[in-house]
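Example record

The entry below shows one chain as it appears in the dataset: sequence first, then structure tokens.
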Amino acid sequence: MSTTSLEPPDTTGPSGESKPADSPIEIYRHSSAHLLAAAVTELYPDAQCGIGPPTDDGFFYDFLVSRPFTPEDIAAIEKKMAHIVKQNRPIEKKLIPKAEALALFAGKGQTLKCQLIEEKAGDQVQCYTMGGFVDFCLGPHLPSTSQIKAFKLKPSPSQSYWKGREGNPEMQRIYGYAFFTKDELDQHLHRLEEAKRRDHRKLGRELDLFSMADETGAGLILWHPKGGFIRKQIEDYWRDRHLEGGYDLVYSPHIAKLDLWKTSGHTEYYRANMYSPIEIENVPYQLKPMNCPFHLTIYNSKLRSYRDLPLRFAELGTVYRFERSGVLHGLMRVRGFTQDDAHLFCRPDQLDAEIVRVLDFVTSILAAFGFTEYETYLSTKPDNAAGTDEQWEVATAALKRALETRGIAYQVDPGEGVFYGPKIDIKIKDSLDRAWQCSTIQVDFNNPNRFQLEYIGEDGKAHQPIMLHRALLGSLERFFGVLIEHYAGAFPLWLAPVQATVIPVTERHHEYAASVAQALRAEKVRAHVDDRNEKLGYKIREAQLQKVPYMLVVGDKEVEAQNVSVRHRQAGDLGSMDTSALAAKISRLSAERATLEEAVRTPGGVS
């Protein structure tokens, strides 16, 4: 899990972009940010402008103001933006001598812009005008405001710090969305509403899956019984697949002597994400941020032969990493989480085959959870890399060959490898077409050298193995969050904590409802009887809200026929069915780990 600093990257663009906007959509969105700034400064002349770059779906601009913006202010600003668009104001580039530019912005009370000019500008300052509004900016921009066709501001601003540094003035950040057409904007806004409906934090509360508490601390997850059951299902499947795939399961402690992390290089390269050492009997210990040093130590516990390789150690290992409170986000960004970790040790001649094998394992495991579309990245050598150029070239070439062997399209992500080696990152696409970082495969020559790993080769001499770091799901917490949002809480049948709720119509049907639930449980179906003194419609609605796959209503007619009336959470009323046949059906679909959609479409009596 990567970290996000509050300190922004060192950008060259005075309006905050890391490089001049050059794609049509970047230019469009950057111009929309200037449109926002023009509207704000005309409505609120005392507002100071900070930075205003394009984003992946729009733009934002930071302002220093005497009071926070209200939703009513935002509505007025959006209306003013639309007015400026209708005015068809030209957007013009101007080169102004530095002293003149400083005087211009100082005269407008824009002292923050003066700071940026002092820091970033040469003798000539490039500015863009939009009527009376002027901004220090690299551009480029659209020729006029009339070309900005579709935008929408978020109704509430957020807070930021000037230059992204705590202690600097607090800014009001206004976000906006911008697209070439209104249809594109409307589609995006619909996706955002759908994402809000699927928010794992909201559904986590409603479905009683997990929580976080002030008493335990920020970024630490409490798994409730239903969430805990789903986690067990995921873990059981994970362990079974790893044992079938030739992995050995290992376990490691939550702390170790600090010296272990010095050997691994984490104190040198990863200190900012590690908690302070713990003193135990005058010896410093460290909460583990990674599992790998323990697996390296297990490898070193005995002499290895070339015949032993490859060795594959897998662990669901809980780690602890320091994340600033400002970047914590539900299950997606936490301080304590469980990695589905594995470390493979192989000979150089086995490297290509092992990477291909892991790629196949990744796609197979993810498909079982309903993820079949990905974005794949090959991340190369960073500035703080350990090891030789030759080792990096060998490792990067091996990853590239594996991707090409399997015909997997990928993008190169320059300089984004980890300090010990290059990596493949696989981002899964969810039902809203959002990409989530989960799976990774990393080649490491560095740690085998640091830990002096060896195996005895066929020649009788000592050789150093190559190590692969590998995660399939990433962390269980993040993956669970992605699952919740992907399925909107309506988990596939095999993961659902309750697969069927038996609903008696009245109290006289309780005994029969209990016998139906018993028959289901005999087929290993997770069944619950809702025998509360509530109306039938209320109980059906409750089961629907809890995303229970099957609702089995039993009344006089069902008792007489010795069957059940079946409702499905998506397909609705499916009619009557024999209890035994239904139990066998649900049991089979669950054992096959069918996705919800497959279950609904299954022919033959009931979906």
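Notes for this example: The chain has three domains: 24-195, 210-487, 500-601. The mean pLDDT is 92.
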